[in-house]
Amino acid sequence: MTKLRNGAIMLMFVTLWGCSDASNNTVILDSTGKHPAGWIVPSTGGLHPAAYNANNSACLECHGNAKKESLPIIVGTSGIGCFNNGNACHPNGPSGGHSAGWDAAGNHGSAAKAAPDESHGFASCTQCHGANYTGGAGKSCMTCHTTAPHPAAPWRGTTSTKTTHTTTDQANVAECSRCHAGGVKLTTPGAVLPNAGCFNSTLCHASAGHPAGWAATGHQIAAKAAAGASTGMDYCRTCHGTDFSGGTTGVSCMQCHTTSPHSKPWLTTTGATTHNHSSTDATNAPACGSCHAGGAKSLTPTTPPADAGCFNNTLCHAAPPSAHAFPNPGSAHLGTANSADCLACHAQGSATSSYPVASGTAPNCRGCHLNANPGTSPQCSDCHGSVANNSAGNKMAGRPTGATFPNRAGKHSSIGGHTAYTCTACHPFTSGDSRHGWSNGVISTAAQVGGTGTRITSWNTTTKSCSPACHGTETW
User: Fold this and answer.
1) Which of 224, 302, 345, 365 has the smallest count of CB within 10 Å of its CB?
2) pLDDT in tens, 373-392
3) Is 178 among the domain residues?
4) 170: domain range?
5) Is residue 126 part of a domain?
6) What is the average per-residue pLDDT within 462-473?
7) Which residues on adjacent β-strands are paired with residue 475?
8) Per the domain annotation, does 248 fall within a domain?
């Protein structure tokens, strides 16, 4: 019995000596038989990940078998396993130290983008997946992400799916700098940039993440442009938050706009019309719907209507046909209907504005009124002639003076000739007739130029010539 007891004690000492003898593995154990200082360090992992990657069998004697297929987990002679050490370094078992469903973007992506610590942040991934994210002791991040340890450029998905870099904690910037110093996109990480910052021009973004002049003019144009990877209201949300109150940037749109992410009432025609919502691309309707569903003016964004649209009664405006015809030509919208209310939908920009437009899109007034903004008191000179000739009794009033449609001078202004006749002498539909201004912004047909009841018997749209009843062919 005594021999058996002594044998057991001897075996115990041999076992413990095997676990703590510095001569067994000088990389793992110090002179006291313990791990050296810096063996486990939050955020970087310390020394032990590299040692494990180099020779993981050396860890097994004291810490047990940590292979995936080995269940239950064998702790080993130290009594301290990788998954039961009380520090929750690898709390979810031997399946790579991760829980079920870890491969879903919302799970491992959120952890990688979180503030760095022993199990969060991009640097923590390198402990097992290698310094270049190509595998190490675990799987390569490139198996799914191909060229980078994150979704493909520009990595600007939605905040709801967590597939956007804009929600990455800025404390990860050192690791980001290994591939993006100076705004580059390396596929093999390099050295950390000492002064790296998300918004100090060391990586991809300037001091505010936008180019110079962004606050003055740039952001309005981009926000109102067609919804895309770098434009539209929803794009602003990726950095400034779903409610535009700051998000990851900490810069709230309300600092300037007070109660909403745009000016109010947002109906002015000042300058280049950036303060008029009518020039906002209709693809932004879902973003608008988060505050204006049913015509509301909510200060707290919510889920927009599934069918949010600018002119389908889901937000503020009805469909155009219920308000007026589409197209709504010439004198059909002249007079009492042409009021400030029109400006709620129709901007007054420049003669380069698009026209015609698709139904459901409010055209810019200048798309048709090429000479001047019509305002609430349209004049002939908005399209033909000049403002200087608008005075009553002036024979040149409304007579074309330019070189292109609809202000082609031709023979319209021949003093002593055609100026002696009114427009109706040659043209069937003039000011005051609902058929005047045919809403194509391009060309006049023969029926629109002359015809029954006029002196024009024929009109050639190609040569711009007519055969008037009063004399020979004229070219206009």
Assistant:
1) 302
2) 776 677 788 888 888 887 76
3) yes
4) 105-183
5) yes
6) 77
7) 465
8) no
